[in-house]
Amino acid sequence: MNTYILIAYLFISVWSAINIIFYGSRPTKMVSWILAVFTLPFAGALLYYLFGVNRRKFKLFKLRQTEKRKHYSETYKELKNGKHSVHEFNSSANDRIANLIRKNSYFAPYEGNKITLLNTGEETFKSIFEAIEHAKESIHIQYYILEQGELLDTFYELFKKKRKEGVEIRMIYDSFGSSKMRGKMVKRFRDLGVKASSTMPIRFGNLLFTLNYRNHRKIIVIDGSIGFTGGYNVSDKYIKPISDLGVWQDLHLKIEGPAVNSLQRVFVKDFHFATKEKLMAEDACFPKIAVKGEHVAQIISSGPDSKYPSIMQQYLAMINAAEKSICIANPYFIPGAPVLEALRIAALSGIEVNLLAPKKSDSLLAKYSMFSRFEELLQVGVNIYLRPDFSHSKVIVIDNRMASVGSGNFDYRSFEHNFETNALVYDNVIAKTIAELFKSHCKKEIQLEYVAFKNRPILTKFVEGLAKFFSPLL
User: Fold this and answer.
1) DSSP letter string over 142-210?
2) What is the pLDDT of residues 442-453, one digit of tens each?
3) Which of 15, 126, 169, 228 has the most Cβ atoms closer than 10 angstroms to its Cβ?
4) Are residues 369 and 285 part of one domain?
5) d(CA 142, CA 227)
6) Quick one: 242 and 123 in the same domain?
7) What's the mean pLDDT in 318-334?
8) Does one domain contain both 234 and 146?
């Protein structure tokens, strides 16, 4: 029996190592996985297939729906509401970033938008509920987390009212993040006539493909003309202190104008992926959208089925385009080597680089992994501030001229494994407003000092090192 186990172990380990060599994306990560496969009998291989497979290159298994998602993206046609709908930049730096996103996410930068910044949970959901109240045709809602509580109950009551008025409602949610949205909880929405479904449900037959690939997006589209996106989930932790972290802080955007068409296309693609219902050809989902304001906005979407890691490329392009300042707020700042090197180069070049992260976290592993990057950044002059409250915002502002708000974190999960959506606003006023809000939290008393941080206890450094080893899984 021991001989058979040994043969099985060697076969699985060698087969896994071959796949890591053929389909691995980064040498250091490949070495880590090969080490895990051979030193953790069977468990190492299982962990690799659950968490380490590079979906962009791994072709031995395919989800049939993935090809349909790619078809939706690659056959995307830019919105033409007039000759000025797609914005043409005078700035070469902005033009390069916009072209990159058009090629890796298939969305153009549209002018004629009105962007409203939503800073608190109360403000965000008040605006969302008001928009739902005025819905006439359709309500599309997509969240990573739909959690039982006051907010979800309000959605339910609003949906009940709007369904009586004949409004079509579609709702999708991540089966892992919204793990309790099953049974009676989802049935009560379906009983109203809401088309509710989970994305990438976790089942035994597709466990290798779904457990590690989550839909992290937060999108609402009303009547195809009003959109919301950002970092807020549907959870009462954003409006009242129901955990040790207090009231969670975040940032969201309300978008009115042509850019909503891009959000709608992200939703339609994900809804089809979850339900097989085809909405792409339905004109009602894509009405002609009038000019609403003067803001230029561009949507970025990314996922394990994307041809390129669009969110990571967006962040890198923005960092490399900075001339004066970079402001990053993120709760899970665990970037890989390319982003870290870009930030080091920026700081050493004389650009003011500011990082705002929470001192407390909902994940100790993520916290220690994040802190393991700080010393090398402090050494080159990056300013790091630790907020005493828990900020869930995912924001980057460059030179007070462009700002990105969305669901994408600075970690391997957002770059490689999750389906994410950001909104990039090319506007001095919006960018400056977000930057001022950012800097209002950057007090001297919460700034890390290089010498003091470098001299932290050796045990802390050891724990950070261990956490750093597991950062590709975060």
Assistant:
1) EES-B-SSHHHHHHHHHHHHHHHTT-EEEEEEETTTTTT-STHHHHHHHTTT-EEEEES---GGGHHHH
2) 999 999 999 999
3) 228
4) no
5) 11
6) yes
7) 96
8) yes
In tens, the pLDDT along 90-141 reads 888 999 999 999 999 999 999 999 999 999 999 999 999 999 999 999 999 9
The answer, yes or no, to whether residue 281 has pLDDT greater than 60, is no
| CB distance 296 to 427 below 8 Å | yes
User: How many domains does one find in the chain?
Assistant: 3
Final residue of a domain: which of 296, 324, 349?
296
The CATH number for 343's domain is: 3.30.870.10
Residues 385 and 246 in one domain: no
Q: Which residues are catalytic?
A: 216, 218, 223, 392, 394, 399
H-helix or E-strand spanning residue 100: helix 92-104
Mean pLDDT in residue range 209-223: 85
- Same domain membership, residue 208 and residue 327: no
Q: Chain-wide mean pLDDT for the chain?
A: 87
For 278, which DSSP code?
Answer: -
What is the number of other CB atoms lying within 10 angstroms of the CB of residue 64? 6
Structural domain that includes position 37: 2-52
Do 13 and 120 sit in the same domain of this protein? Answer: no
Q: Is the pLDDT of residue 42 over 50?
A: yes
DSSP character at residue 215: B
Residues shown for the chain? 474
